[in-house]
Amino acid sequence: MAFPSIEKDRRGPGPRPNLTNYRATCRAFSYDAVRRELGRSPGGGFNIGYLALDRQLARGLGGHLALRWLGRDGSVRDFSYAGLAAEANRFANLLRRLGVEPGQRVFALAHRTPALYAAALGTLKAGAVFCPLFSQFGPEPVRTHMEIGDASVLLTSATLYRRKVADWRHELPSLRQVLLIDAAEDAPEGTLALTPALAAQSDSFEAVESAPEDMALLHFTSGTTGRPKGVVHVHDAATHHYATGRFALDLHEGDVYWCTADPGWVTGTSYGILAPLLHGVTMIVDEAEFDAERWYAILQDQKVSVWYTAPTAIRMLMRAGAELAAGYDLGALRFAASVGEPLNPEAVVWGREALGRPFHDNWWQTETGGIMIANYAALPVKPGSMGLPLPGVRAGIVERAPDGGVVEIVEPDRVGELALRPGWPSMMRGYLHEEARYRKAFAGGWYLSGDLARRDAEGYYWFVGRADDMIKTSGHLIGPFEVESVLMEHPAVAEAGVIGVPDPVAGELVKAFVALKPGALEPGHEAGEAAEALARALLGHARKRLGPAVAPREIVFRKSLPKTRSGKILRRLLKARELGQEPGDLSTLESDES
Ligand code: ATP
Ligand code: MG
After folding, report:
1. Mean per-residue pLDDT, 308-319
2. Rounded CA gap, 121 and 590, in Å?
3. For labelling alongside 470, which of 54, 56, 463, 535 has CA 20 to 30 A away?
4. Whole-model pTM?
């Protein structure tokens, strides 16, 4: 292995990590104990909105800062737990006044404004289902997602409404009301201005006495492998959000926590709203998009102690250079974690060198609703590994048996499909309106993730690739992540995406698309001799590290790589373009420069 494990200094500053003895914690763990700790509302209900807000007021946290919102223009708005609860209650009362019943769907297509967060919590308290959409979706995915989800109410802004919804709004019979966050009294016909409507509502609301199995959230997957699926989650998901906030994110009382994900993706809701509030910590929300200097300033000025972000952002910070980070005091940062894509070992180590903390990779999916496998605060980090399963989670590596069944691979280091034994509370309860597809995800008592991985002798899981992205060349099965990670080691490389292209002899050949760091090639030399020499150097580096069978045969440079709006490299699009094929559903594609 190129990168040794990163051992932790247990006597370092800060509180004692929540998980120190992994095995003992796993043995002692039970979700029922977590449920008992969370408790229920006085009427016996189990409602995420109640647990995130009212429970904290009952614990005396009413005056504690729940949400600090940082506006794009430099403005700041603070909400205590009591203040956020009051806003959520107004929203819940408004839903009730509009006739929204428990179980009905409230969609949000909104920028990261305080109203979005209050609406999410108010929706949950009202027993309705919160369905966040990413505000940068085009009109078509907005419409199809709202059709799939039978939207009753849409929360959005006047501009987003005009651009993305107004044209077809009356063709969606289930859609009863559109609430416009920023409209004044002049809201267009068929819409309601949110601010005056909320002002007329009471700021107290008793949470609906939901049952743990009642539907609470509808999330759409990222669409990396095809058309996004609508994933159903229930109120009991809070049990897992709470447990993982403790063990995987190491949340402690008094923490200032920043999750950079947008609530339009599952991370931005499970861990950008729910887990921090369930723990009573302060969460930071930044309205603006990624900007390296702004992000370092937030980490410094807000004294962020726990930070949850994604590999794409980390790679952009690496691209901006460690010198930039050195200009900020990041001393408050105790724990940094990453999810969403494979985190290259290079990035883990860079975190420790440039920010003073290694990134802790963790793995999960929209379907799992919460973190399943993680690197922990007190345990050594193996750079490039996703870590160990969470207490309460039973993971395995499996393969299909000839009889169509599924068998677990027990010997270490063999690649197979990453699978989980169902039973954790945030597991999806269905793909909405896609029962057959849902059933296909299970076999032999396992939930099959569609990702390939291996487990080492110490039980750490290593991501190999999505089953769809695997490359078969001359009898070898190659995961793109391994090749991309090695390319990332080269100082000129900012990002890499690797695919297989058909070859009559080898079956497939490995081809790499690489985005370079600024300055790697002199301006004007992106093509020509200097570029060819750099490509040769990269090929040489890859061959030395991976051997000729696994190293790419060809490397081409791109300004950037195509990604989903949640930041995942779209290898299927690189491949379709390479082969001149139809790319399939691109509703979640972020514009790219290819
Ligand atoms: P779709 O299912 O629509 O194709 P998607 O799988 O990208 O999209 P998400 O649920 O947002 O949608 O992403 C989950 C996937 O992201 C995982 O199955 C895995 O492939 C990838 N992923 C998440 N975390 C990690 C990680 N730490 N390392 C490697 N891959 C990860
Ligand atoms: Mg998926």
Report:
1. 95
2. 28
3. 535
4. 0.95
